[in-house]
Description:
homodimer; 6-stranded mixed beta sheet; 15% strand; 6-stranded parallel beta sheet; 3 domains; alpha/beta; 434 Repressor (Amino-terminal Domain); Rossmann fold; disordered C terminus; DNA-binding
Amino acid sequence: MSIKQLAARADVSMATVSRVFNFPDKVRADTRQHVLRIAQELGYLPNASARSLRTQRSKVLGIVLPTLLNPVFAECLDGMAQAARAAGYAILPITTDYELEREEQAVLQLIAADVDGMVLVVSQPATSRALDRLRAAALPYVLAYNRHAAHPCVSVDNEAAVIEMVARLVAMGHRRIAFISGQLAASDRAMQRQRGFCEGMHAHGLHADDCLEVPFIETAIQDIRALLETPARPTALVCSNDLIAIRSLRAAHLAGLTVPDDISIAGFDGIALGNDLTPALSTITQPNHTIGRDSVQWLVGALTDGQALAPQASRLLPHGFRTGESCARAPDASSSPRRKRVASVPSSTLDSSCPPF
Amino acid sequence: MSIKQLAARADVSMATVSRVFNFPDKVRADTRQHVLRIAQELGYLPNASARSLRTQRSKVLGIVLPTLLNPVFAECLDGMAQAARAAGYAILPITTDYELEREEQAVLQLIAADVDGMVLVVSQPATSRALDRLRAAALPYVLAYNRHAAHPCVSVDNEAAVIEMVARLVAMGHRRIAFISGQLAASDRAMQRQRGFCEGMHAHGLHADDCLEVPFIETAIQDIRALLETPARPTALVCSNDLIAIRSLRAAHLAGLTVPDDISIAGFDGIALGNDLTPALSTITQPNHTIGRDSVQWLVGALTDGQALAPQASRLLPHGFRTGESCARAPDASSSPRRKRVASVPSSTLDSSCPPF
DNA sequence: CTGTTAGCGCATTCAT
DNA sequence: ATGAATGCGCTAACAG
Lengths: 357, 357
């Protein structure tokens, strides 16, 4: 079904048909009705490829995400999809599984697909070759979750959020607090959060020595468990994201510890599911849906009025804290001290380095 | 960057450039190198819209899913994405939030986008207007998770799986077993699973009276809790999916019950996260990733050798059982019987109807 | 208000 | 092995 055939059947010109679909008021009401009726009968649908080839704009937004297996990004994508729909845009999401090469491939594919702009969550904005490609193609884009002075970003203040979380735990009597993250190199968020942890600890005169990196999902729980079976185990865990926090809950259970009586566990992300767990996950909440929505709205706005996306206008959305059931006062906060720390977890899995501020 | 400009710079014809990218061996090695080098320099990327306009095939598969907020579909999409990539196809996923109208819209949008075929998860294959559109457009498609004799489907045997699960629970001494589902009308899977529940119960001479529908996420936990605070509460819950099972775990906790000592809870889906919970979720597992992969591979296969997708060739993938920690022998299985059942949960939320087999 | 025409970028005949 | 010409379906000038 092409516009030509439809025009023939309706006994009008192609141009008229085109106008019926693009500028309905530029055509007389009765002819419009007529054309629409025939179009209905024939099941005519304007061909998107031809349209974008001709107009040089596709009304499609490219979306680049690490994965949808982490609900954070699924929630965010949901927000993007809604905003895009509302603005009359379609979205074309691609996942990269945290592989840098695929980030770049995704961008190239989206450029070839003629998208009008992109929203992406990259690993490291500072060094991303994908972003180089975008600049080269002069395509408008917004980064979500990432934070970097040279790019237009929508995120939360990861560092401040964790600093605050540490303060809360300290206020609850915790002194030995560990930080658990996935592969730090895989995401700037994780690094910012770790930095916040270190800074937060230092602010209270505490050492931020216990930073455990659990890069492999398969062994994460066992690795965390090992930390928890250490003689001078931490009394609280700050996790770089909610999935890791959930695995930490599991690890604590396997180590024979009760949460939050024996150990407190805090997450980061605020995924919906955390609320349904027992114990309900205490966590730093990000407005995931809103991050997605705002990113798209900002991008669409720029697309609409042809304005540039200024890095200076980057949005820092407010984070929050969900008071779940996985954090409580430190055990023995005022009673007999435990025996001194003797050994730690295997140094191979322990990362004591704390990047400078 | 168009093929024309590239051709000019490389001092060859457009046709040659085209061949370099589509039939590399149909062009002399040195000219190929030459063209590729210039293409590299200019950052040339073949335009997808123009290509699909010309060839009438886009190398894109449309994917229609209810939502990505349920990890089942995220896992499945992940499988689809991998298979599509491997076959040289891009995917264009659209979510419908279980709204029939959006199912149809999605299909129309995908048709307009010129997709070569589609994989979809619909609510009710039997009455789906979206599928009518597909047939009308004569586009190849495969249904995932759905099961219907008139359509090519990739799914598991929901009914058999639940029958088996009921048998397992009965073998563990359970007699009062309830079935919890979301809105039944929203998915044929849920109905098949309920049917399996009824059949399974009847097979053991038990009544399948306790079928609770919890259509609203917001109140699901409280609704389930109400059931669990019934005098003659069930000793086991079979949940229509893992998310509901997780909420049931929560509801049990809120009702002061210990899982699995006081009550057993079984899920359906086998989402990865269930493994990390405490108690680890006992559940019927579907090969979600494989369902996605196989659906795409089947579709791509048909696309490749121009063959039709026969409903008779529908695949029934094997389900499995994950032995978690949320199911155990019924309490008091051999000791004093509890007082007889007096009242049930409010009838407004109780659906005792059991569709015929 | 409506029709005619040209060209978006590409793959594909048909020549050479 | 390569080049010239055509048209996929559509929209945007321009003409009437």
